[in-house]
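assembly run, all chains below
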Amino acid sequence: MTARRLVVIGGDAGGMTAASQARRRATPDELDIVAFERGDYTSYSACGIPYFIGGLVADVDDLVARSPAEHRANGIDLRTRTDVTAIDLQARTVTTHDVDSGRAVTEPFDDLVIATGATPLRPPLPGVDAHGIYGVQTLGDGVRLRDEVVASAATNGPVVVVGGGYVGLELAEALHRRGRPVTVVEAGAQPMSTLDADMGALVGDAIRGLGITLLTDTAVDGFETDTNGRVRAVTIGDHTIATDTVVLGLGVKPNVELAHAAGIDIGPSAGIATDAHMATSAAHVWAAGDCAESRHRVSNRPVAIALGTHANKQGRVVGINVTGGDVTFGGVIGTAATKICEYEVARTGLNEREARDAGFDVDTATIEATSRAGYYPDTTPITVKFVVERGRGRLLGGQIIGREGAAKRIDVLATAIWNEMTVEEIQQLDLAYAPPFSTVWDPVLVAARKAAEQLSPTHRP
Amino acid sequence: MTARRLVVIGGDAGGMTAASQARRRATPDELDIVAFERGDYTSYSACGIPYFIGGLVADVDDLVARSPAEHRANGIDLRTRTDVTAIDLQARTVTTHDVDSGRAVTEPFDDLVIATGATPLRPPLPGVDAHGIYGVQTLGDGVRLRDEVVASAATNGPVVVVGGGYVGLELAEALHRRGRPVTVVEAGAQPMSTLDADMGALVGDAIRGLGITLLTDTAVDGFETDTNGRVRAVTIGDHTIATDTVVLGLGVKPNVELAHAAGIDIGPSAGIATDAHMATSAAHVWAAGDCAESRHRVSNRPVAIALGTHANKQGRVVGINVTGGDVTFGGVIGTAATKICEYEVARTGLNEREARDAGFDVDTATIEATSRAGYYPDTTPITVKFVVERGRGRLLGGQIIGREGAAKRIDVLATAIWNEMTVEEIQQLDLAYAPPFSTVWDPVLVAARKAAEQLSPTHRP
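ok done. output:
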């Protein structure tokens, strides 16, 4: 029997989870697995990069869950520093390009997994390609920024972060932790546009409280460069902010050029279109991770949300299906969390704007409670917001801001949304209580109760 | 219009939540509300008593959510130090007994809420009624034990805790924190019999690691007393353990004598039988809190689980129904959590034994993971156990032991069990991930995946 051949494009979570899962289910006699990675690292935690830059994680290898050598020892023919430049669906081949030698090779496949990830958005502004302006997505990006930060530690120059989303704020904290004066420039009225403005304002207060300068409603117009082509200032209208390092935190776009050029369908979210099995429009071609589109369970719309959690789950689905299994990816509900110094921020489902865009009639309820029993030491405030479908009372989304222990409470909301629970049902949930962990009415239940009372026709406030 | 009259027996969570909810929904012109409390305190946190005894909470008033005076100001005729000694269902009256004056009064009611709570089990052993042997259930009990501990601080005498359940261990920690040598005597093979033995063993290791002596498989035979009638030793077979203070942590029994004597049905769990509206077998008589039975959603059996979370929810249901509303109590699933020094322990649903008793064919999966990304500072181990229905794969129960941030993860399992999710579905959940909070595969998802793989017909380990 000749082994079939599985080719994987991309060596991070989506691709290597697919490869590893397939390796568990098929012997080398049954399946050859070859994976191509453009950079030097495989299976790393992109989410850990801010902690590496900030110095909480000392060694870049700590962020690598499985190295190329470990993948090879596991029976995967892993080739780093190898770009894939074309897919030929007719010939069932990919063309690879050795980054160092420039050599091109044609490699056959029976099944193909596209896991090309995403790239930080780089707006077409004057000077945006100057030295010293960093987008941080790959571990290679992270290493370059850290090297820069360490090398320039003596000058302690100011840093500008463009974009106040999760990645921007995490990198802002990391650079603040390194002792750099940090300014975050956000085009919107509040940071964290994935939250509603009222919750984003709480994050903004927290950021400013740390000593980070936060400019909201502020659009960057361009970048001034010095004679060496290095950024020296950020231009905002008539003003400039002097800086020698800029970090772009404007989000990412799925890397779909390779798939698009091969004639594979790209979806409305700009990710590679997939079905529930994570199959693309081309037979025996699959997609996983940041480049792939999937279904949002609440809006029922295709979305491309770049998170390692989805990449891992999608990779697992692909690895099973590519080896004769039959499992589906259940979709996403937009759960995300971050920690900015002592502040924990989390969201799930749809925020108010997203819920209205998706056609829902929306009500909201926001409560402030405490993380522990009021009398227990070290109790801190926690704010919980519910976004609810008016009438039926189904929970559509939730947002939580607090300190220690706040963020992971979002998982109750995520599980409730997954199961299409109403707020009337949620307030009945038998959640854990002990004074060190919660109030006797858990903050989540308090928010559910408030939302349920608002929706009740006999509501007396 | 003459106001109807609501009488509430019992001034803690179940009764006073019912009273307060009713007060919100009905004006004094519509409804008189009278509540009788045997002791001095109302609406207090029994769960906070160990922290008061241990000294983490300085003032007993901090444990009181709403005092008698506050209830009165809220329009509830609250009478402390007033026992209710009889219910006459024909005459629609209760007989009250003033604890101080001994005066008896007959009070009419239209609706009656029985919220008489529970009493610590006191086994019929020789000497069990000696001075210095404490059952701790009411805030009054807690004040007496604390006074004793403070008064005898100079002697620093050894303490024996009989029973290694939640309350026993929390009190053991509190007394250990006070510098007392503590011995916990547990009849079972492991402490925390609400957990499976393998998880209980982890708790036992933790307890011993704190310097608390833990004797398992050890039954207490009686108590020796001195000439003043005070306990001086615990007898175990041929041995004695010298002590001057004993704490009983053997669980509680519902206080149903009053209801039983009135002819109200008591259920198989020994709690007052209720329907989903928390109505008893007698018209216009309701029950809430530790004295009341409710339905376990997984076993579908009646249970009486003494927890403030249930008392509050049941009280709310009664308060709404007694004022013309129509809501039901959704039942319980046995969620509970505690913290013993740095160890967090939580459970929900059915444990292995309970699941087998309820007639399920049971499989289990236990995993060890970490509380944060492996590379993130202060990462600690976390153990998650799933109890699963074989075949269908429905999650029946779960147990979690770890350190900071471990216990409240049980809420995801509780929400999943509430919705009758299978482990195949659970492993797809979109839970929050960030390196300070979780691994990219959340420990709950890892356990679900392991359980799902075990159940799969094509499972390759």
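Chain B has three domains: 4-119+252-321, 122-248, 336-455.

Chain B has a mean pLDDT of 95.

not gonna interpret more than that til we talk
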